[in-house]
Amino acid sequence: MASLVPCPHCGMRPKEEFTIKGAAIARPGSHADANEWMDYVYLRNNPLGTYDEYWHHTSGCRRWLVVTRDTGTHEISASCDVTVAVKTGVAA
Amino acid sequence: MSEYRVTRRSALGSNALRSERICISALPEGHVIQVMGKEGGPDLGAFLSEKIGGGAKFAVRIAAPFQWYVVGDRALSPEETDTMLDTLHPHAAGVDQSHGRVRFQVEGAMVERLLAKGTGTDVSVEAFPVGHSTMTLIGHIAAHVTRVGEHAFEIMVLRGFAESLWDDCARMAQEFT
Amino acid sequence: MPGSKALHGRGPLRSPWLGNCRVQVPVTDAPRKRRTQSLGHYGVHHVQGRNTTTASNAVTVKYIARLAGQEMRKSLLQRRSVFPVDGEITVIQKPGGGKQVRTARYPAETHPLAREAAQNAVDPVRLQPVRRSAASTYKQSVALASCGGYCFTGDFYPGGASYALPVTRQRPHIVQRFSGEKVGGPERFGCRRVRHQRKIFDKKKAERLSYSGCFERHGSNLYVSVSLVQGEFDIPRYPFYTHATKLADMRYSALSIFLNGLRGNQSWKPAWREPQPKSHYDVIIVGGGGHGLATAYYLAKEFGVTNVAVIEKSYIGSGNVGRNTTIIRSNYLLPGNNPFYEYSMKLWESLEQELNFNAMVSQRGVLNLFHSDAQRDAYTRRGNAMLLHGVDAELLDRTAVRKMLPFLDFDNARFPIQGGLLQRRGGTVRHDAVAWGYARGADQRGVDIIQNCEVIGIRRDNGRVTGVETTKGFIRCAKLGLAAAGNSSRVASMAGLKLPIESHVLQAFVSEGLKPFIDGVITFGAGHFYVSQSDKGGLVFGGDIDGYNSYAQRGNLATVEHVAEAGKAMIPGISRVRVLRSWGGIMDMSMDGSPIIDRTSLDNLYLNAGWCYGGFKATPASGFCFAHLLARGVAHETARAFRFDRFERGHLLDEKGQGAQANLH
Ligand SMILES: Cc1cc2nc3c(=O)[nH]c(=O)nc-3n(C[C@H](O)[C@H](O)[C@H](O)COP(=O)(O)OP(=O)(O)OC[C@H]3O[C@@H](n4cnc5c(N)ncnc54)[C@H](O)[C@@H]3O)c2cc1C
Ligand SMILES: [Zn+2]
């Protein structure tokens, strides 16, 4: 048991309870062109530093979250429900 | 047609493991209704316990944001279930999970110590007061845990995993029995 | 002046004409008194031959004669022209020994130091140590610097232009194009003259600056490099060597071990130099991992490109090449993958002879266990694909596996072992020896391996890369190859490229030493666990990546727990084995699980990335194919599927069929 990840609904939870999807990036609209889809599906900024990632609290509340984490230190600075993230423009 | 009849068998039977400091016992396979409210909708807790939980203590548990479980020891007839699900309309939708989820109770002075072996959730009474419930991993199995007394938790788990989780809990309880 | 100390210790020099035999060059062991600032090196395309000779920055003209072996020595002695006092370099092409030989001539006979230098020249074959004082080196360097007031420079590549070095103290690193200078083609026999007469700083300042000269032979080229050393002359630190006989030094061998043993093992030399970067390279490779070093090695050895630098931000072997679990195999399914990995396997099979380096290549077999009918079908298919590609594969049933590995948990209630797919030619290789072996081989062929030098920028001009900004200054290059593994995205972003890659951490573990009981590599098919036993007895094992983007080179305990559980599920007997150490490495996880070896949208920028957790086994072929691409501009036949644009074109190479999610591959 290790590495607690904050869930806005459940509190601190071990990493095992989550499934990680990857970069929290906006999905293009249905009329987006091939380049935009290429960018969305395959290309990643993959930064060193702060990073927004989709985590699913699979063995908990089963909500999709956007977890803001530092890829260099693994420190988590924020975590919110994906609906909140969409509202505040973090992800779409 | 198969020559074998499908017979209903309870997942945990009337298993029980009792000792002074810890006690694990299967609960009746009554009913489990999963209620799904509208995303961003109102808290239906009070409404649910009054309308379909019959006001019973611990009948309604939070499952997730906008989701609840309504549980009870009594098995419902199909008609009763239908009525219950109709009552939810239009506030929420319900799914009968009575055959899908199984409950058992863990109690005794060592109950927090036992659960702490399996879950990363803080189960101390300050962080996890009576009446509070949550979904969490116990070992490798996801389970819905509700504190029903100072030294008592109810654990609800998918039926297929019930025996395994029971065995895990029994093993975790070994040092306390 | 840090010159009062006597110089001792001897640097390695290999005579260009006498193969690997070494001559000794005094270098200092005096610690640096003052930080010198190298302002870059300037090369002269110069002598043809086959072996490697290098000297440190500190080696001044006196050594030319000793360096160069008979042919060149003769010509130099005859001319007594070893000093560039007037800032002029004359390049003479001269036939010698049937080959065309070009030597340097410095029209400076008049200079007393030059005469002294020529007289002091010793025959390299006699291997006499020469004692020199730092003071004399200083004097010579001042003499070198007496071209002060002029920028001393030379970039004599065919068709190349000259560059001038504007020596201002404020901007010491900036190299400007020096216009108005045409350099004749090197093919022409005769005399090529280049004059450097651009006044760039005033006399007064010049006196306080000095040059040090450097003669380096890289593969078929001898370079006369001159770097500017700011302040008083100071000799850069250089590895020390003591006497060694010709024989013992030539190659690693039983004899060399014996002879070195006789001398108390004091005479072993570092396996590669620690050069300062030159100002220009034909090819720069970013990343001194297995792939970068192998690329440089094959560039020099197979493709004749020797003016190459490998730039490594840390030390050689600090990346994944020294962190992996050492497994090599070629049991791939897809047509785009299999021939490449099989080619790599073939290179592994002859690698140690090739490198004269013990990399402990051990073809102990790789066995993938299966636990269900579906998995058996999948492995059967893979085995058949391997056979169709001419790769060895055997499908073992339960009994055969049991005979090999009786201690596995065959009757595991959930995941009983049903059999396995075995590749006997698979196995393990000592990972850091691979890095060292390639580094040594590349270095011997003239490649500069520049450690502790991080690439922090990629300069571009008109759709072309002009060079890299590094923590040691700007270095120009004609071609740039990226082989930065887990840091590929970051390096590529310096050139404005966005890659189909995420960086993830993968952990590895080593247990305490046990008696030998696992012959080969075993992979569990029902959980993330694989294991082999090292020659020291430790179990070397690992599992899956942790699953989140990371650059941290350390992982999560959740994964440790999973790996331990899966390991115990496969081999119940190891439940009490203690883990001695574990670590993490950063994987360049590509979006289809397969690598990229290709050109990029920038004309002279090449990419080698996306190795996921399987790039170690690819090291030789990756190096070879990348070198092929860099040298010839077209993909090697076994690497044609590793195209950068395959994502756009929909031709994914998804061995596992997972789709575009990096952490599932
Ligand atoms: C735990 C673990 C187990 C593995 N097990 C296996 C296995 O069993 N079999 C197998 O085939 N593969 C395995 N791999 C994968 C394999 O190790 C890698 O795919 C492979 O080593 C990558 O190529 P490389 O050797 O060139 O990488 P590296 O050694 O990582 O080389 C890249 C280098 O680039 C340098 N660099 C990065 N950025 C810069 C910069 N800006 N400037 C200068 N230098 C820079 C880094 O410092 C590094 O040294 C494993 C990896 C790990 C981490
Ligand atoms: Zn949650």
Automatic annotation (TrEMBL), chain A:
GO molecular function list: sarcosine oxidase activity
Pfam families: SoxD (PF04267)
Annotated source species: Phyllobacterium brassicacearum
InterPro entries: SoxD, SoxD_sf
Annotated GO biological process: tetrahydrofolate metabolic process
Protein's name in the database: Sarcosine oxidase subunit delta
UniProtKB/TrEMBL annotation, chain B:
One Pfam family it belongs to: GCV_T
GCVT N-terminal domain segment(s): 67-176
Matching SUPFAM superfamilies: Folate-binding domain
Domain of life (superkingdom): Bacteria
InterPro entries assigned: GCVT_N, TrmE/GcvT-like
Name assigned to this protein: Sarcosine oxidase subunit gamma
